[in-house]
Amino acid sequence: MTSGTGARHFLDLDDFDTATLRSILERGNALKKAGRADKPLAGKTLAMIFEKPSTRTRVSFEVGMRQLGGDVVMLSSKEMQLGRGETVADTAKVLSRFVDVIMLRTDSEEKLLELAEHATVPVINGLTDRSHPCQIMADVLTFEEHRGPIAGKVVAWSGDGNNVAASWIHAAVRFGFELRLACPEGLKPPPGLIDWAAGQGGKVSVTGDPQAAVAGADCVVTDTWVSMNQEDGETRHNLLAPYRVDRRLMANAKSDAIFMHCLPAHRGDEVTAEVIDGPNSVVWDEAENRLHAQKGILTWCLDS
Ligand code: CP
Ligand code: NVA
Hints:
By secondary structure, the protein is of the alpha/beta class. The protein has two domains: 13-132 and 288-302, Rossmann fold (3-Layer(aba) Sandwich), CATH 3.40.50; 135-283, Rossmann fold (3-Layer(aba) Sandwich), CATH 3.40.50. It contains twelve helices and nine strands. The strands form two sheets. The chain has a five-stranded parallel β-sheet with strand order 7-6-5-8-9. Helix 6 (163-175) links the parallel strand 5 (154-158) and strand 6 (178-182). The protein is globular and about 55 Å long. Phosphoric acid mono(formamide)ester binds next to helix 2.
């Protein structure tokens, strides 16, 4: 999405056409292969605002920016005037005078959109309550490194129909793979999102049956049962227990199906240790690819 000022925002995968997403991934891939020699972001500064905790997003953006020759300012909203009432719009205008690109991790999709509306520099979605697009760029990169082109393949999700699931739905449509989600009643993705996918000609289905979703899949994915700032932990554990990814569930996928998880993981809850630490798990490559995907996103946003 490009703002009125021409800034290239990276807000959600559904904002983009396939060719642009592919070009961002190709940038990441090329930079991964090139190693650390290239410094296309020399003289540029990234500001990162975190309203929620992070390990991977924070470190991959910071290390990625520095490896590309740029600089980073880390901001926690609690320590900013934003945390005591300064508006998102004013924050956007001020930061745009200091830095070249802003990343925000927030609970509220509205805050991200407001930041993008008022910033004159690119804004990147580092996770909201609605989506996690940077993660899924890394996930597509990881899938393709292990199993070749993702178009036409089958990815199965078993668990909470949350923000990460939403970005998988966007990706299924844009990258042309089938996505089968198994989620309990009450934790399915928003119906509007499934309707959007259908309207775009995407192959996205939702069932309550994890075995059916996983049957013959090339990849099985899950995520935490309790996302950041969610409080109904016990209810979620009860609803989601049948969706745990264990050896029995993986056995219904293709024999060489890979297992992915954005991390952090909770062994014994959404996935058993024998699956996440087993031979079909690619979660460490997936985590590393956050760095390479981030570089693709940063260089695309800054057109460098
Ligand atoms: N997967 C992911 O976004 O991890 P962090 O919360 O550690 O950034
Ligand atoms: N769904 C999780 C993802 C963490 C990277 C959360 O929002 O907490």
